[in-house]
Amino acid sequence: MRNLESLDLSVNQLSGSIPQSLSQLSFLSYLNLSFNHLSGRIPGPQLSTFKGDSYSGNNGLCGTPLS
After folding, report:
1. Domain for residue 37, yes or no?
2. Sequence-ordered strand ranges (E) for the chain
3. Residue 67 falls within a domain, yes or no?
4. Which of 2, 12, 40, 50 is the most interior residue, by most CB within 10 Å?
């Protein structure tokens, strides 16, 4: 799964924090976790490179690119 390039988990009722392991997906070029119930800090430098739209609708999230 390390070569995963695209991940869309939007509108899935996901809750809790974003797993640190997602930040190890070095080939990931598209990520959409919007409109779930995620909370906590966005992990790792890799996941902070995506636009804020990737995380919109998760009021409990914080960190770059949201801050």
Report:
1. yes
2. 6-8, 15-16, 30-32, 37-41, 60-62
3. no
4. 50
